[in-house]
Design brief:
By secondary structure, this protein is of the alpha+beta class. It has helices spanning 20-23, 33-48, 116-121, and strands at residues 7-13, 56-67, 76-87, 90-99, 102-115.
Protein backbone atom coordinates (compact mmCIF):
# COMPACT_ATOMS: atom_id res chain seq x y z
CA UNK A 1 0.00 0.00 0.00
CA UNK A 2 1.35 3.39 -1.00
CA UNK A 3 1.59 5.51 2.15
CA UNK A 4 3.73 8.28 3.58
CA UNK A 5 6.77 7.16 5.51
CA UNK A 6 7.97 4.67 2.91
CA UNK A 7 11.76 4.89 2.72
CA UNK A 8 14.72 3.39 0.92
CA UNK A 9 18.47 3.89 1.05
CA UNK A 10 20.61 3.49 -2.07
CA UNK A 11 24.40 3.39 -1.89
CA UNK A 12 27.42 3.74 -4.14
CA UNK A 13 31.16 3.60 -3.77
CA UNK A 14 32.35 6.66 -5.68
CA UNK A 15 34.21 5.55 -8.79
CA UNK A 16 36.05 7.48 -11.46
CA UNK A 17 32.89 7.45 -13.61
CA UNK A 18 30.96 9.23 -10.84
CA UNK A 19 33.28 12.24 -10.62
CA UNK A 20 32.65 15.80 -11.70
CA UNK A 21 35.44 15.39 -14.26
CA UNK A 22 33.83 12.32 -15.84
CA UNK A 23 30.33 13.82 -15.93
CA UNK A 24 31.47 17.23 -17.11
CA UNK A 25 29.95 19.11 -14.19
CA UNK A 26 33.29 20.23 -12.77
CA UNK A 27 37.03 19.72 -12.98
CA UNK A 28 37.84 17.90 -9.74
CA UNK A 29 37.93 14.16 -8.95
CA UNK A 30 35.04 14.21 -6.45
CA UNK A 31 31.47 12.91 -6.49
CA UNK A 32 29.62 14.92 -9.12
CA UNK A 33 26.41 16.64 -8.13
CA UNK A 34 24.53 14.89 -10.99
CA UNK A 35 25.71 11.52 -9.61
CA UNK A 36 24.50 12.42 -6.12
CA UNK A 37 21.14 13.52 -7.53
CA UNK A 38 20.81 10.27 -9.49
CA UNK A 39 21.46 8.30 -6.29
CA UNK A 40 18.74 10.30 -4.52
CA UNK A 41 16.30 9.66 -7.38
CA UNK A 42 17.14 5.96 -7.30
CA UNK A 43 16.35 5.79 -3.59
CA UNK A 44 13.00 7.52 -4.14
CA UNK A 45 12.09 5.26 -7.05
CA UNK A 46 12.90 2.13 -5.02
CA UNK A 47 11.09 3.39 -1.90
CA UNK A 48 7.71 3.11 -3.63
CA UNK A 49 8.30 0.57 -6.43
CA UNK A 50 7.01 -2.49 -4.51
CA UNK A 51 3.76 -0.68 -3.67
CA UNK A 52 2.79 0.47 -7.17
CA UNK A 53 0.03 -1.12 -9.25
CA UNK A 54 1.05 -3.65 -11.90
CA UNK A 55 2.32 -1.89 -15.02
CA UNK A 56 3.12 1.35 -13.19
CA UNK A 57 6.40 3.04 -12.36
CA UNK A 58 7.51 6.50 -11.29
CA UNK A 59 9.40 9.18 -13.19
CA UNK A 60 11.27 12.14 -11.82
CA UNK A 61 9.60 15.53 -12.19
CA UNK A 62 11.66 17.88 -10.05
CA UNK A 63 14.57 17.75 -7.65
CA UNK A 64 15.92 20.53 -5.47
CA UNK A 65 19.05 19.76 -3.52
CA UNK A 66 22.11 21.25 -1.94
CA UNK A 67 25.48 19.53 -2.32
CA UNK A 68 27.26 20.43 0.90
CA UNK A 69 30.44 18.34 1.14
CA UNK A 70 32.82 16.68 -1.35
CA UNK A 71 33.24 12.90 -1.47
CA UNK A 72 36.45 11.36 -2.80
CA UNK A 73 36.80 8.42 -5.16
CA UNK A 74 36.46 5.32 -2.98
CA UNK A 75 34.05 6.92 -0.50
CA UNK A 76 30.77 5.13 0.25
CA UNK A 77 27.80 7.49 -0.12
CA UNK A 78 24.25 6.65 0.94
CA UNK A 79 21.10 8.41 -0.23
CA UNK A 80 17.90 7.98 1.76
CA UNK A 81 14.51 8.97 0.37
CA UNK A 82 11.39 9.22 2.49
CA UNK A 83 7.92 9.63 1.02
CA UNK A 84 6.50 12.73 2.72
CA UNK A 85 3.29 13.47 0.77
CA UNK A 86 0.99 11.83 -1.78
CA UNK A 87 -1.18 14.02 -4.01
CA UNK A 88 -2.86 11.82 -6.62
CA UNK A 89 -0.09 10.78 -9.03
CA UNK A 90 2.41 13.17 -7.39
CA UNK A 91 4.81 11.76 -4.81
CA UNK A 92 6.88 14.16 -2.70
CA UNK A 93 10.10 12.94 -1.06
CA UNK A 94 12.65 14.22 1.41
CA UNK A 95 16.13 13.13 0.24
CA UNK A 96 19.40 13.07 2.19
CA UNK A 97 22.89 11.95 1.13
CA UNK A 98 25.51 11.00 3.71
CA UNK A 99 29.06 9.71 3.87
CA UNK A 100 29.48 8.14 7.28
CA UNK A 101 28.18 10.72 9.73
CA UNK A 102 28.75 13.62 7.31
CA UNK A 103 25.80 15.25 5.55
CA UNK A 104 26.75 15.40 1.86
CA UNK A 105 23.49 16.74 0.43
CA UNK A 106 19.81 17.22 1.17
CA UNK A 107 16.68 18.30 -0.59
CA UNK A 108 13.28 17.43 -1.97
CA UNK A 109 12.23 15.34 -4.93
CA UNK A 110 8.94 15.05 -6.84
CA UNK A 111 8.05 11.89 -8.75
CA UNK A 112 4.95 11.06 -10.81
CA UNK A 113 3.23 7.68 -10.99
CA UNK A 114 2.83 6.70 -14.64
CA UNK A 115 1.61 3.74 -16.63
CA UNK A 116 4.67 2.31 -18.39
CA UNK A 117 2.96 1.54 -21.73
CA UNK A 118 1.17 4.90 -22.00
CA UNK A 119 4.33 6.76 -21.03
CA UNK A 120 6.48 4.99 -23.63
CA UNK A 121 3.78 5.44 -26.29
CA UNK A 122 4.39 9.20 -26.09
CA UNK A 123 7.87 8.84 -27.59
Amino acid sequence: MLETGLTHTSSIVVGDSDTAIALGSGDMPVLATPAMLALMENAAMLAVAPELPEGSTTVGGHISSSHLMPSAVGAEVHARATLEKIDGRKLYFNVVATEGDRLVGEGTHLRFIVDRERFMAKL
